[in-house]
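pipeline stage [seq->struct] | target=tRNA (guanine-N(1)-)-methyltransferase | organism=Lactiplantibacillus daowaiensis | residues=246
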Amino acid sequence: MRIDILSLFPQMFDGPLHESMIGNAVENKVIDVGVTNFRDYTTDKHNHVDDYPYGGGAGMLLQPQPIFDALADIEAKHATKGRVILLDPAGYQFNQSVAEDFAKEDHLTFICGHYEGYDERIRSLVTDEVSLGDYVLTGGELGAMVMIDATVRLIPGVLGNAESAPGDSFSSGLLEYPQYTRPADFRGLKVPDILLSGDHGKIDDWRLQQALKRTYERRPDMLAKLQLSGKARQMLADIKADADEL
């Protein structure tokens, strides 16, 4: 996968793109990442990339020319600018399903805004307008880092264990079940006996029950979207009955 990032602050990506999982993916050539300072493309003699909005109003807007020309250069170098993602609080909300969709692409380009917003004409170049959540950041860089991290870890060959991503919270539609490692008894806090039993069928059932319980307690809204098996529906009914007795 090729990932391009347009930002006024490219140094912000130095750490996240060269450490941990993403750093390994870059080093192993699983992904190819380029960060472009679109200020380098401005034709303004003072190097400005923003200006006041027509009609008045607070703040400054990013001008179209630097971003149009930066995207044109990416397209000239790579024969495509790929799927172009505008980081915008007014966009649809990013989630695991969106990350899975992005992970299927060969080329993603993220536009990180700053200041008050964008000249509306920039949106004519965009395929997706995406928000990290219902809050406002000073720029799109942190949002792009989160989206890239969530996306790249789903690409085959990035995670050490191919089964890790499908078992994550949200990938299955449920929050992840509790997990434990050694020692089995840490200062009186013990690992559940079932996990030490070696009975993988019972372990799978326990994990499903715990995932359902955790989701019901913390994110019941997620359950409404799921098509549960008969076994899972019965487990959930038992969980609800136990909660009602408390």
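stage status: PASS
auto-comment: The two ends are 51 Å apart (CA to CA). The CA atoms of residues 95 and 210 lie 22 Å apart.
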